[in-house]
Amino acid sequence: MIESVEQNLKNGKLLPLMEEFYTIQGEGFHTGKPAYFVRIGGCDVGCSWCDTKRSWNAELHPAVLADDIVKRAVATPGKAVVVTGGEPSMYELAYFTAELHKNKILTFIETSGAHKLSGEWDWICLSPKRQIPPKKEIFKKAHELKMIVQTEADIAWAEENSLKVSEHCELYLQPEWSVAPKILPIIIEYAKNNPKWKISLQSHKYMKIP
């Protein structure tokens, strides 16, 4: 029986693809690493400072075969895929990650943790948002906690979340881009006084690459 588009979206064989491109990871623990980025459309978190608001409405982005995305990722030399959004935890990703692993591709995800996470991941970057806090179970799975800091009050929110992750989780404070000149000095001083935290910058924007 031929499966419908709706069925294939549900089982993860189709994904609402906003964009895909081979580039250099610009943020967090893997800064500088070549990777194939897969940006999935659809997000219900709604951060006011989001720089990819066009990703929010999944209906604006075509349903693409996961197998075709895998083929294009395999053709790049980086052998790593970063799944981002939007909010990728809205989708079933077990099929996609299984196919990537069959082809010896490392799987990384960047998520707010707002929904139950599916798939097998070599690296989970958790970036909690106040509007829809992460599901409890993702905290101990996270390899990296990346907290976006727009105001000084966000540092207290970062500390709250840092108490929920494992002791091996990498901790990052990252200035929100539009206020970076103002908030970065505060983050620097805080990290100097609280060295469990490292600083993440959106280095791809400085390098002028996607």
Annotation, overall tally of beta strands: 9
**In CATH terms, what is the fold-level topology of the domain at 5-147?**
TIM Barrel
Total of helices: 6
Q: In angstroms, what is the radius of gyration?
A: 17 Å
CATH class of the domain at 5-147: Alpha Beta
Distance between the termini: 40 Å
| CATH homologous superfamily title of the domain at 5-147 | Aldolase class I
* CATH level-two architecture of the domain at 5-147: Alpha-Beta Barrel
Q: What oligomerization state is this entry in?
A: single chain
Strand content: 15-25%
Strand order of the largest sheet: 3-1-2-4-5-6-7-8-9
What's the pLDDT, averaged over the residues?
95
Element string (H = helix, E = strand): HEEEHEHEEEHEHEH
Task: Describe the protein.
The protein has 210 residues and is of the alpha/beta class. The chain has a domain at 5-147: TIM Barrel (Alpha-Beta Barrel), CATH 3.20.20. 26% of the residues lie in helices and 24% in strands. It has a nine-stranded mixed beta sheet with strand order 3-1-2-4-5-6-7-8-9. β8, α5 (180-193) and β9 (197-199) form a beta-alpha-beta unit. α2 (66-74) packs parallel to α3 (94-102). The longest helix is centred in the C-terminal third of the chain and has 14 residues, at 180-193. The protein is globular, with a radius of gyration of 17 Å. The mean pLDDT is 95.
